[in-house]
């Protein structure tokens, strides 16, 4: 039996009588309405249980600390912050059972902000609610619905704010040089169970370890917030990596100041100040820890200072001068490195022309030999990707010099390629339309998709030093030189359907890659949208223009595939249809092999044609081969 003193919210006296007291059974020595608690004097031996709102707990907190009360908490409907801060279950029966079955109280720490106790969390600035909202006890559907609503709030137009941050070092003294940075806001908790963000990235956190956790949110773009927000909607509560834009301080004292008033909220109560002094008072109160509160008798007071990703210096000033962009803006160093590289790549050097000649020669021989490995080798050797990526950047930033130089380089390369493809065709006594050649004279929307993906890969590879050398070959896989070689072969043959078909594929690859690469550079922050708008619009116009014949080609391919699917393996009166090939779509001409038990006469062959026309619902020209089972 426990001797409990119950301090309760008199506004809920009926609920106390009907729900709380029956669960506590005969363990209640006295029950006291909150408004009368000052009339009583409690000793350190008394065990007090509170059924109070957050506001009432906060008013009582100084007295609890001063008098060293042994205390337990029950989940009052309006006690959300204290319930989370002390790990109390939202279910009354579980909370009561925990209090009755726990033999000893545990001394836990209390976080203070400018002398005010923090029951659960302190939010500084415009930190997105998505990252610190609580939903442990919500129903499944409601939890994910609320997360999605908070995710949509991530699209707000926001600015970072200047902060000067100092903290206690390992010796206990404050740093000699504070950090000047720009941040969206901060989440400060005494232990790691107070928010979605802290639950996932704070490890080895206990309510009695003498430490606070300050999570500093310093994103460089809205996209960084949305990315983590989307991840938070569906991710379970398992530990995850600290987002790159979140700095983490684990220490006992933190000082935060600004040249602007700092808006912050202590447990949802709004306050404003020029500076905030955060400090943990170790083992300030003795409580019955809730079922979700982590304590440890042997805690390691290890401090953490992960602040290397905080924006400082020139980057900090850039971020403070404008609203947070949708995508990351490239740094000055990234700009200089990439533009130097792209300007060099836009030049028609002798090495570039030699590689164009060699790659075209290899591709042309590979086409005549119907050899895929040889053609792949030509793709890897071809240098056309570099000036195309330079062209994309020129289009994005409206750099006339970079555009003209890139166009000239691409033109010279194509001229060299055409020259060698035509010469080889004239001197090669082969005039056969094999699979490798025919595959490149009927482009469709799938080819545009390949070009777009390759443009993205090329732009990304060029913009990142760490992947520039490893992804260039992947970007070349769009196969720019093979369609150039096929077009040259068509010219050498005088076959204009081959020439124009391959040229259309080459134009598709070029237009798709330029647009995709320009959009990738825009997304990576190498140009503001107002500057990029004109170039993106022009590139989009050319892609839409070239998509018309591609859509027609794709439609033809879909029709051919549907015809082949309908007829392949179909049983008709005289046999089974095999090896279906569509020679021409309009008017429809098909080649089919029919497997029969015996040779077919002319009447039976006509029946086969009629059966196929009935199946397809249209007249056809038919090339029919008969295979007899033996």
TrEMBL record:
| Entry-linked InterPro entries | ATP-NAD_kinase_N (IPR017438), DUF389 (IPR005240), NAD/diacylglycerol_kinase_sf (IPR016064)
- Which keywords has UniProt assigned to this entry? Membrane, Transmembrane, Transmembrane helix
Which stretches are transmembrane? 352-369, 375-397, 409-429, 473-493, 499-524, 536-554
Q: What PANTHER family does the annotation carry? A: AT15442P-RELATED (PTHR20992)
Q: What is the official name of this protein in its record?
A: Uncharacterized hydrophobic domain-containing protein
Question: What species was this sequence derived from?
Answer: Belliella buryatensis
